[in-house]
Amino acid sequence: MTETTSGPARGSRAKGAKANKGLRIERVHTTPGVHPYDEVVWERRDVVMTNWRDGSINFEQRGVEFPDFWSVNAVNIVTSKYFRGAVGTPQRETGLKQLIDRIVKTYRKAGEDHSYFASPADAEIFEHELAYALLHQIFSFNSPVWFNVGTPQPQQVSACFILAVDDSMESILEWYKEEGMIFKGGSGAGLNLSRIRSSKELLSSGGNASGPVSFMRGADASAGTIKSGGATRRAAKMVILDVDHPDIESFIETKVKEEEKIRALRDAGFDMDLGGDDITSVQYQNANNSVRVNDEFMKAVESGGRFGLRARMTGEIIEEVDAKALFRKMAEAAWACADPGIQYDDTINHWHTCPESGRINGSNPCSEYMHLDNTSCNLASLNLMKFLKDDGEGHQSFDVERFSKVVELVITAMDISICFADFPTQKIGENTRAFRQLGIGYANLGALLMATGHAYDSDGGRALAGAITSLMTSTSYRRSAELAAVVGAYEGYARNAKPHNRVMQQHADANTKAVRVDDLDTQIWAAATEAWQDVIRLGEKNGFRNAQASVIAPTGTIGLAMSCDTTGLEPDLALVKFKKLVGGGSMQIVNGTVPQALRRLGYQPEQIEAIVAHIAENGNVVDAPGLKTEHYEVFDCAMGERSISAMGHVRMMAAIQPWISGALSKTVNMPESATVEEVEEIYFEAWKMGVKALAIYRDNCKVGQPLSAKTKEKEKAEITEKTEETIRSAVEKVVEYRPVRKRLPKGRPGITTSFTVGGAEGYMTANSYPDDGLGEVFLKMSKQGSTLAGMMDAFSIAVSVGLQYGVPLETYVSKFTNMRFEPAGMTDDPDVRMAQSIVDYIFRRLALDFLPFETRSALGIHSAEERQRHLETGSYEPSIEDDEVDVEGLAQSAPRQQDVAPAPVPAPKAAIPAPQQAPHTSAELVEMQLGISADAPLCFSCGTKMQRAGSCYICEGCGSTSGCS
């Protein structure tokens, strides 16, 4: 995207650039004389975000301006998370233009102030190209940039921090303070506690030391109190201990013991769900824990040998342990509660560009940023699907040239940000300015692989992922060398020139050895090879502007803001997604990547249509008509009928790691049935493959999650269902049951309701038995055409006949509420403000009119008055005063269900199908399709089920995270 003044674009990269001449910026996406904003269609949207659990409004801002191609979810998240200024005041941002301008103009000014550009014209092109890329969701900065840049508050741009702590009370207390300030700013931090002497060593006064595990309690309590950014979610932190620390066994067991405590308290009736009233009594829940292992230990595990634990003060071995037994304890703990993760120390430091300035001891909370202590890293991620060229006939290519130019643009912007950035501590500020660590990465890898017909766990998928990663990092370091020629190398480069260039050669050598698989990845490998050659040549001449260039972050909130189907390097969650619609409502859709993949694989339009229809109905590709079984693997996802194996995740990490400066934020998902031996195998094989760090997560291993109670309810329901089935079988053997139709009398009370759903008008007449509830329903749609009108007539007759044969109304309500199809959206009924479809509205209205409060409340259906009461009192139920009968009111509202006698023989509650909670995100939709309950937490902001993003959780509904940005 840019060139220097020393020559033409390509030639300048090969020859280097003359210092202090500035960068020449070329246009890639923009048009001279036309601002990027003028090339898109803008529209006004209303953003109203509610808590799906109680209907309360979490956020509301109307009339915000966005391009017409932005998804509802992206608009909601950017408006609620990133717009600055108090809502309802003139200072509040009202559109995407203001937000992007606030950022790109700040970057341009800083670039000009620090002599990055050759001329004002180049600065303007930089501004326009950056604005275009953000506007079209081609990439995104990490969240702190959107929060802080261009505002009066401190302009913190980094999301990732590594702290340090020494063996002194002053340093430990300083750790608490520094960590708290980072949490207060909405970011996360990690550190290694291995300098703190163990509980098996003596203090200078002669007494025993407390040990690092004891000091973890204070830090954990501090994190739990401060939370992150003042929000009601846990802080993001990482705690690391070296495997040769004498307290390593206590460290490994900390969370396992707490999980046992959670079980005991839960069984005693305490609220131990994440966010529950009593969970705060449990320790060590606000951090991810990792053990830092070295090659000496792993070789001892391999050989079955002994391993020495060393005193922190003297370095002498004070205890020897069985390496394999200690490794087993790590695996058992991870199997039981997902902690600790593992980090491979020698692998990490083998790729360290600045060893002369210190070792890499720690990482950020999600394990992707690994560099010197007391440093930070600002991140940005590219949307890979934006670079896939598809002619619609199955012919695809990756736009190598445009990808490279966007990488250059983003790296330039990220480096400029360090010039004006603020930092939470003086030490972090000094070190970050001295080493200028950057973390460019990407999102949507899983979607890209599927769209190009590659299985996530395949040689072709790994080759394509590796090629893109190699090209991204090589282009980044090439730009870093070009920047060094213009504005100077990072301060620590002179001292670390030899190891830095050695690491660049390691990357280049790995690129040369990489296996090429098909036409897509081969062209990318070729471009990466050329770029690495430039990196070696320019680096030796100019040095580098940045000690680190790339990481793969979780891309939680920013991934949703870019409308990515998949986060970071994760595979797709499932083949069917939950999509919000403009104007309200939602629908289930088959991923758009599926038809692309089928075209790439050579299927014809008619075959694609049939396969997509099968997926829509079944949620998977098994037995899809015409789909070859050898192509099933292309559509494997993180969850579902065909989920990717745990080792498949590890193999993908290993395929990417050689071309990432830092590491990869990813959790290796394992089924609940996985064994401790399988955890051991993953930890061992990842070391062999050269992965720097990983964590496993076995389904349902956590106790303190919101669904543990539901699991117990499910078990009870299964027992009850079996009992009822036994009774029904016995009765059926005695007497044959035949339903009898009970017709309505000629004169019958009724209610006629007019309604509007998503602009479609209609009328519903509901007639009742004089003494026994609803008996028939008639529906009339206005101006909707004969087909819809006829279908509604037929539907009305079917429902009415069922009611007269004794089908309980609550059965219809549980089946038909939350059914989604157009028309859908806003209604004119104050009790039912939003409807997913006409059928959804009809049965919500019937429930409100004819079901008793207890029955419909169990189904989650409440009137406007009841929802208001809940907001004021915490209960939907009417008070004693409300229960006093108003005779006039009853006369006017008859014949509502409350006014008529109950059915003489009501159906037993156990026989009524349990209402199914409506899904509000793709994660919840997958759970419903698979009949499972994943133990992810509920979002504190909107109440929906979160999903994993690396080592953190992301809420697809509102963009909130459990720590990652």
UniProtKB/TrEMBL annotation:
Residues 895-919 have a biased composition (Low complexity). Belongs to the ribonucleoside diphosphate reductase class-2 family. Its cofactor is adenosylcob(III)alamin. Pfam families: Ribonuc_red_2_N, Ribonuc_red_lgC, TSCPD. Keywords: Cobalamin, Cobalt, Disulfide bond, DNA synthesis, Nucleotide-binding, Oxidoreductase. Residues 158-697 form the Ribonucleotide reductase large subunit C-terminal domain. One of its GO terms (molecular function) is cobalamin binding. Catalyzes the reduction of ribonucleotides to deoxyribonucleotides. May function to provide a pool of deoxyribonucleotide precursors for DNA repair during oxygen limitation and/or for immediate growth after restoration of oxygen. The keyword Phosphoprotein does not apply. NCBIfam families: NrdJ_Z, PRK06556.1. InterPro entries: RdRp_reductase_class-2 (IPR050862), RNR_2_N (IPR013678), RNR_lg_C (IPR000788), RNR_NrdJ/NrdZ (IPR013344), TSCPD_dom (IPR024434). Transmembrane segments: none annotated. It is an enzyme of class 1 (oxidoreductase). Coiled coil: none annotated. This is Vitamin B12-dependent ribonucleotide reductase. It catalyses: a 2'-deoxyribonucleoside 5'-diphosphate + [thioredoxin]-disulfide + H2O = a ribonucleoside 5'-diphosphate + [thioredoxin]-dithiol. Residues 1-23, 895-920 are annotated as: Disordered. One of its GO terms (biological process) is DNA biosynthetic process. Residues 47-137 form the Ribonucleotide reductase class II vitamin B12-dependent N-terminal domain. SUPFAM superfamilies: PFL-like glycyl radical enzymes (SSF51998). It comes from Streptomyces tsukubensis (strain DSM 42081 / NBRC 108919 / NRRL 18488 / 9993). Its EC number is 1.17.4.1.
